[in-house]
């Protein structure tokens, strides 16, 4: 599937919502017809089920019993199980796009998705959208439900935040952009309170951000920010990196998955007022312990001493890519 909506439809087929014991069929036909044409049930009488049909309790048991052939695999999410149970109780929800209105959490991982399409707006109750490990390079904020609180886009190809920040969900609390293609300094301007007034957690790890001072100047506007991940960016190689962030963002609780204790904050106190300590360069020491698969130059030197033939010279070089 190329879009989130297409991946969701494929997911629904995987859940078997149209098939027994979910959906609408001979196993619950009279019950669904009764809902369309309600009739008063005489007081004191239990509802009678026609032969060949099953009660909702029996159908739910078929879904919940781990030994049942209709049970979901153990690695399926609780949301998937609840969705199947809701459809058993109200199979009429399968008509149109009513199922999507029940979904609060949507996880589509490694499905080849390339587009967050407009069809996502039919998820009117969606609070969590996780579409990591796909091929998404651009996210249009107009296609995101306004109810969204968690947006996870890790392991994609996002290189620009302009479209995402045009009309971002106002209640968003977590934004995950780790392992993408963000590079500064043009992206820092999109990480302010003007776009993310309620942001608590921000993951920018393993991108190509280089401007630590510029980034910090924008992040200081996020008054609710408590969790920040920046590891894996070139700027994290700066010697004063952690201390400068800890002192610049006094409300931060966790930096790069490490809790900030009061003793550490006291240790780095005053560092935010010394931006001259932040150099735009880093020193990296690379040690090569052993190289395999190359001829030993000493073998050629021994041959040269008593050789009357032509001399052979070999040289090698190592290339590092950053």
Automatic annotation (TrEMBL):
PROSITE patterns to which the protein is assigned, alphabetical: LRR (PS51450)
Keyword Repeat found: yes
Keyword Nucleus found: no
UniProt xrefs under PANTHER family: LEUCINE-RICH REPEAT-CONTAINING PROTEIN 51, NISCHARIN RELATED
UniProt organism field: Nesospiza acunhae
GO cellular component term of the entry, any: cytoplasm
Record keywords, A-Z: Leucine-rich repeat, Repeat
SUPFAM superfamilies: Outer arm dynein light chain 1
Gene3D superfamilies: Ribonuclease Inhibitor
Record InterPro entries: Leu-rich_rpt, LRR_dom_sf
Annotated gene: Lrrc43
Full protein name: LRC43 protein
């Amino acid at each position: 599937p190329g879009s989130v909506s297409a991946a969701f439809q494929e997911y629904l087929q995987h859940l078997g919502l149209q098939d027994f014991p979910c959906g609408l069929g001979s196993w619950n036909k009279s019950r669904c017809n009764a809902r369309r044409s309600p009739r008063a049930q005489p007081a004191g009488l239990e509802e009678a089920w026609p032969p060949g049909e099953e009660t909702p309790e029996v159908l739910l048991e078929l879904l919940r019993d781990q030994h049942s052939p209709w049970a979901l695999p153990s690695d399926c999410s609780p949301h998937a199980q609840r969705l199947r149970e809701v459809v058993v109780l109200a199979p009429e929800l399968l008509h149109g796009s009513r199922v999507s209105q029940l979904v609060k959490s949507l996880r589509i991982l490694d499905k080849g998705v390339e587009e967050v399409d407009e069809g996502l707006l039919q998820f009117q109750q969606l609070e969590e959208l996780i579409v990591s490990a796909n091929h998404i390079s651009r996210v249009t904020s107009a296609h995101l439900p306004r109810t969204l609180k968690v947006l996870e886009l890790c392991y994609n190809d996002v290189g620009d935040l302009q479209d995402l920040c045009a009309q971002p969900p106002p209640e968003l609390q977590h934004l995950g952009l780790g392992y993408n293609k963000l590079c500064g300094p043009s992206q820092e301007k999109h990480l302010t309170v003007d776009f993310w007034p309620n942001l608590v957690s921000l993951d920018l790890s393993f991108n190509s951000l280089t401007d630590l001072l510029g980034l910090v100047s924008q992040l200081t506007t996020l008054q609710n920010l408590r969790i920040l991940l920046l590891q894996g960016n070139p700027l994290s190689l700066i010697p004063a990196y952690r201390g400068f962030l800890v002192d610049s963002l006094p409300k931060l609780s966790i930096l790069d998955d490490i809790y900030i204790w009061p003793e550490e904050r006291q240790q780095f106190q005053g560092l935010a007022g010394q931006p001259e300590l932040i150099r735009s360069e880093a020193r990296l020491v690379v040690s090569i312990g052993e190289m395999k698969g190359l001829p030993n130059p000493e073998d050629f030197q021994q041959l040269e001493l008593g050789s009357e033939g032509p001399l052979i010279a070999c040289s090698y070089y190592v290339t590092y890519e950053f």
